[in-house]
Design brief:
The chain contains 20 helices and 19 strands. It is about 40% helix and about 20% strand. The longest helix is centred in the C-terminal third of the chain and has 35 residues. Strands 13, 14, 15, 16, 17, 18 and 19 form a 7-stranded mixed sheet that branches. The protein has a 6-stranded mixed sheet with strand order 7-10-9-8-11-12, with helices on both faces. It has 5 domains: about 80 residues, 3-Layer(aba) Sandwich (GIY-YIG endonuclease), CATH 3.40.1440.10; about 140 residues, no CATH class; about 110 residues, Nucleotidyltransferase, domain 5 (2-Layer Sandwich), CATH 3.30.420.340; about 170 residues, Nucleotidyltransferase, domain 5 (2-Layer Sandwich); about 50 residues, 5' to 3' exonuclease, C-terminal subdomain (DNA polymerase, domain 1, Orthogonal Bundle). The chain is of the alpha+beta class.
Length: about 600
Amino acid sequence: MEFEFKAEDYPTTPGVYIMKDESGLIIYVGKALNLRKRLTSYFRSVQRHTPKTRVLVSKIRAIDVLATSTEKEALLLEASLIKKHRPKYNIVLRDDKQYVLFQLDKKSEYPRLKITRKVVRDGSVYFGPYTSSYYARETWKILGKVFPLRKCSDSTFRNRARPCLYHDIGQCLGPCVNVVPRERYMELVKKVEQLLSGRAADLVGMLETEMQQASANLEFERAAQLRDQVRAIRRTIEKQSVVLNSLADMDVIALSATDQGLGLGILFIRRGRLLDNKNFFWPGLTMDEAEEVLSSFISQFYSATKFIPGKILVPFEFDGNPAAELLSERSKSTVRIRTPHSLDEKKILEIARQNASLSASERKKDSILEVLASKLKLPEPPQRIECIDASHLGGEGMRVGMVVYEEGLPEKSQYRVYSFPELENSGDDYAALYNWVGRRIESGPPWADLILIDGGLGQLNSVEKGFSDFWQDDDPAPALASIAKGPSRKAGELDDRIFRPGRKNHLPLKPGSPELLYLQQIRDEAHRFVIGRQRRSRKKKTLNSELLSMPGIGPKTARLLWDNYSSIEEMKKASASELAEIEGIGKKKAEQIHHAFQSL
């Protein structure tokens, strides 16, 4: 039954509209300054819409609206709903992970430089982002060798009784136990801040002058230290290129369309240097959707815990005022979203566009997902793959781990572990997989296009029977396949075998073929994930038993402690006043817990 749109049913206020299909599934979320006017545009001159919008309109069976007082509030609500429901026809940012940053806590008496993925508005100074955590950690190691700042956490720093290994190898001045003049320590902090702020040339010049003076004064050990600092700085900045004459901090976003779809490139410019870049791609989209892509990308990408520069360059004018207001609120400083003005800014925007174009053109039609669909006889490429693996330790702790791959990439935020206490001590993998189907259906969509099971025909048949008994949706159940070790039965061999329902024999996939290697990669990720969770659960169970055996600590208090500390060692180091700061633990209880830990 087609949806009958009546404009008078909707308000003229700002807000968010939620479109649903015949099963009640949310298929699109949008925002509008005037809800009635925006919704009317969908049902007027439908033939002038893009193909994607025409298909969307044909699927609509209900529209809900949520009114807001401002367009900025609507933008914030839209981003939140997209992230939660991941509607099929929205521009969903799959790779929205937090990138690596350097954090320098300037409020501490002895600041430390640490790697983080979240921005906390606590007065710290942040540098980055780096899309490569490996490169960031290598840089951190180099800086730690020549600028010996403390490495330990604040809690450890306050409770340390003797110097750590970093002090012994000369990579920390040991302010925790040594009397280090703060002026000398802050000189190192200033140098690190200069380097990461992009003032490397000034820092190198200053250090080379100090090195020459030390050498002239026959202070050869001091001169050698300064020489190592200069080399470390040059190694750190050699991968960065100067792209702007001004010492500007900005992100530059550009779009490029090909026959394959729409690519987006973003460059991270810090102090005029190109620090890093990242590319995104949405298959099947055209430049007709460019404004929607850009608006949706900005609201989803720049979260409150991500570093947000003061300037974001975009390729064309669009209604970015609500987004700029939202980002300014998130970063607690003014953020401007605008098109390039100077020749330098136009050149850097072209570099971003070329990156976006390269990313889009590299998407081959004959992708691994299309090859997989052909080899497994699937109706279309599996955009969402769920892989499950049943695991237990000697029959104890029966669990099924599930990893999720979307558009060929792991979606770690959707990984899950399902526990089955009713199967404790049974070691029955088949029953666990059968029961998993019921649990998975209870959790609801999004449904997988393909479910990959770690195991052979027995495991495959258990999952197939589960869907036969529990699946009640009008649409077909997800496609199934299982992956079992080959005749060698050795991990890492290339002769694993793929089974599909309705076949007694395995599929003729060649050992070492891209599609088989890809399925092996997903299976190995599921195995790694569930085993890791299994061990973590077993360890925590043991530690929790130790914790609960202590006087004054019951299940509720143990939960509060685990929520605030990652190990019993950290709990032991915490002072009574620190424990008392935990909500739910008073001063008297904190002293009792602290005394119990000190008695161990």
